[in-house]
Amino acid sequence: MILCALRRVLARLKSELAIGVAAALTCSLVPAQAEEPVLNLYSARHYATDEALYSNFTRATGIRINRVDADDAGILARLKAEGSASAADVILLVDAARLWKGEVDQLFAPVKSSELEKAVPPHLRSQARPEGSLWFGLSTRARLIVYDKQKIQRTDVDSYEKLADPRLTGRLCVRSGSHPYNLSLFGAMMEHLGPAATETWLKGLVANMARSPKGGDTDQIKGVASGECGVALVNSYYLARILRSNTPEDKAIAERIGVVFPNQATTGTHMNIAGGAVARHAKHPENALKFLKYLVSAQAQTYFADGNNEWPVVKGLKLNNPALQAMGGANFKSEQLPVSVVGMNQVRVQQMLDRVGFR
Amino acid sequence: MRLFSGFRGLLTLLLVWPVLMVLAAWSQWDASSAQVLQALSQTVLPDYLWSSLLLCLGVGLGVISMGSVSAAAVSLFDFPGRKTLEWALLLPLAMPAYVVAYAYTDFLQYSGPLQTQLRQAFGWQGALWPDVRSLWGAAAVLSFSLYPYLYLLTRTALTERAPQLMEAARLLGLGLMQRILRVALPLARPAIAAGVALALMETLADFGVSSYFGVQTFTAGIYKSWLVMDNRWAAAQLSTVLLVLVGLMLWLEFRAQSRLRFVNARLRARTHESQPLPLQSWPALLALFLCLMPILLGFVAPLLIMLHALWQNSQTQAMPWPSFMDWTWNSLRLGGITALLAVACALLFAYGARVQPSRWRLLSAQLMGLGYAVPGVVIVVGLLWPVSWLQTHWPQSQAGYWLTATILGLVWAYLVRFIAVALQSVQSGYSRISTTTDETARLLGTHGWALFSRVHWPLLSRATAAALLLVWVDVMKELPATLVLRPFNTDTLAVVAYQLARDERLGEAALPSMALVLVGLLPVLLLSRALRQPR
Known about the structure:
The complex is a heterodimer.
Chain A: H1 2-29, E1 38-43, H2 51-61, E2 64-69, H3 72-82, E3 90-93, H4 96-104, E4 108-109, H5 114-119, E5 136-148, E6 172-173, H6 180-193, H7 195-208, H8 217-226, E7 231-235, H9 236-244, H10 248-256, E8 257-260, E9 271-279, H11 285-295, H12 298-308, E10 311-312, H13 322-327, H14 341-356
Parallel strand pairs in A: 1-2, 1-3, 6-7
Antiparallel strand pairs in A: 3-9, 4-9, 5-7, 5-8, 5-9, 5-10
Helix pairs in contact in A: 4-14, 6-7, 6-14, 8-10
Chain B: H1 2-24, H2 31-43, H3 45-76, E1 77-78, H4 82-88, H5 97-108, H6 113-122, H7 135-171, H8 176-205, H9 208-212, H10 218-228, H11 232-258, E2 277-278, H12 281-316, H13 321-355, H14 359-370, H15 376-393, H16 399-405, H17 408-430, H18 435-443, H19 448-477, H20 480-485, H21 493-502, H22 506-532
Parallel strand pairs in B: 1-2
Helix pairs in contact in B: 1-14, 1-15, 1-17, 3-4, 3-7, 3-8, 3-10, 3-12, 5-7, 5-12, 7-8, 7-19, 8-11, 8-17, 10-11, 11-14, 12-22, 13-17, 13-19, 13-22, 14-17, 15-17, 17-19, 19-22, 21-22
């Protein structure tokens, strides 16, 4: 009886497969044209809240969005394999190093648009070429320092460099050094300090760790609030989420911790970006450009800030995000390095981490 | 017949292709991958190897103790609750290891609810117990979610023949311990070996749990070379080391199995006289306890923790029910399609190896088995490389399109990864059918397809059902290949759970995770009942 039911389910699945193959055949033989306008999106933005962003675009333009969400490396590998057969029109990635990598691997098409160039500051997009830019930063996140107000003086942790100070021995919590957020910060530090001093600094960080690197940024914040760690390196985006939360646990965390925008007196706080590009073999390049332009529109940019706790790249917008404002709004000094340098330094940084035993 | 073997050859090639590509990675040896590998081997590689070995040791001990003890308890003895435990022991199978990891970490860590409340209540200071996020924590979590493989295979082996042999041994005057050691254990050994091999291969390929726990395994090194160093050749070259390890394991297991051919020709000899031994008072309690522990720790506790997270989350946010149905359907569909194909392939290969065992067939079965231990990402690399070559040199073929715009690429990757599971199960089924059965059938004029459909198939149906179930559930839990190769707008429960967990929204990840568990339960329950029905 049960086996019978199972057989029926299996038979249905079998016909599903047959239909799938038949549909695929027809699709590849008959090029999809003159249907409703579509945009094929590969996105490494993994935020459930982005749904509203996409549906707003579809409402405004009538262009339907087909989407695959994956991680940055997976998207790049997939693009490479698909080559000219790729269906992707727009690619969204969440790390400067990956955007740089896509540029080097020639996966993007140059875009010349005064609207985009006006909206995105030069250090937050690819180096301009005569035929245009290859990718554009769309929003930024800061790498911040969070500390336990009961145990640590703010002045002891107001720069990235001070985190390696022996005074903080056994106090520092940080996620794996190989995570893009950390690789990006360390790559920028290498640009500021030079390789030798960066390696010494990383050694200092390892010596100060309260526990071996594990968990995500939220875990580091909780670690500080629970007293397990004294100070931690965290991404602004996760911090803002806790600061905005209404649950009693999160309110207690927000109460206990202090937040520092590091290096205000020197190089500025390190920023990473989420950005977008038009795919080199885009089948709907006009729609792709429309979408990128939509993402730098005031509506989308405020959405990045208010909906997803990121800082917009477009200046002069009025933010309505209490957490970002509580952290200092947009009034802090941010690093002005071209973000692509972190991509170039990545391999050397990882080998440095392996040498100093930073997991 | 020639057409048939041609087809089989082509299929073999398709299934071992990505694994061969991994081996072929050495042809891409250049200065940059040499530099990456040299730097790794001078710094972190020895540690990676060491922690991988320790992890395997921990998981091996864990799955053997939980899986074989519980399988022996429910198939050799009778005690209150046995019938329920028989299928309940399969429940953790539906629980992806990474979900168990999320649940336990959040609950047990220093800043988690349990420690915080204990500290508040009793005024204690500091960490109250060692961190779950450690090598031994990872071994425990992986053991909980992997022991059902061993349990399922061992139980199948034992229920089919052990009771009557145990009965015979008892009549011949052997004590209980002697009967277990000299009758049940040898009967179960091929199944235990197969189960351990599956569990260890899964452990070696695991990235989800060990990366979340910050355990630096060999696989972590592979991911690092690929994702951070951006050198997929170095990653593939490192994977060959993994392949050698697994090859060694498979060979040992193969030898163990080939020395053990305890086959009972009269499979249907189970009668009322040979029932499992009834247990009373404390031995019954002990058996109950031993069987309940893995279920409680591997299923009930993580489920309760997640339910709590889900409940908390539902207070603040609306649940995305409509898209939820899509995710579920996609998971079920991909799992079902792959499971059917995998079982069909496994039967094809196992039958071939049975009727015409040749060196080549044995070797290709072993090679296919390797896919299971290769981290999903490496399979993706092995799969994408030739396709991108084809796409570049013959753009009209639209090879790149076929791979990702349809489910073909994804199902291919699943098959490469999970054919081993189906093969192991079917082959261990075959190993319990005496070769004299085949000879008798042949003497009576039954050959080819009839031999398979009238003799083997009825005897293999349980092993086939087990294979179907294992692959189905495995596919639904699979992540790396699903993430990269799926067509547009086909999110699965595993993908959504992962994306939310990656975004550190464990509360929201609880809903798809729970659904993954519940949906995974469907095939588990369906098939475990089918397994129980007397033939």
